[in-house]
Design a protein that fits this description.
By secondary structure, the protein is mainly α. The chain contains 3 helices and 2 strands, in the order ααββα. It has one domain.
Amino acid sequence: MLNRRIKFLGSSLPQSRFTIIDYFKILQHIIENSVQYGLEVVDKGCCGTGVVEFAVLCNKLTPVCPDDSKYLYWDSVHLADKGYSIVIDRALQENILL
């Protein structure tokens, strides 16, 4: 249904460009090729234990890893800055800059 809606929007708004980005496919690729991106830890977050803490549970009282650029995730839910950067770069390469 989403593909049909995107095609409809593209035909009814010809000066616009629409695309569907498969976030989970990109994330899976990053996890499977983590070394290529300079990531060392992709199975837990940088904050706290990296398993259960997220959002407000990651605060100034919670320990963090020494170098978050080696982690895909910041906490147990959200990507670290480097993770988001990699996702955006791949999404643009695969979908927008064709």
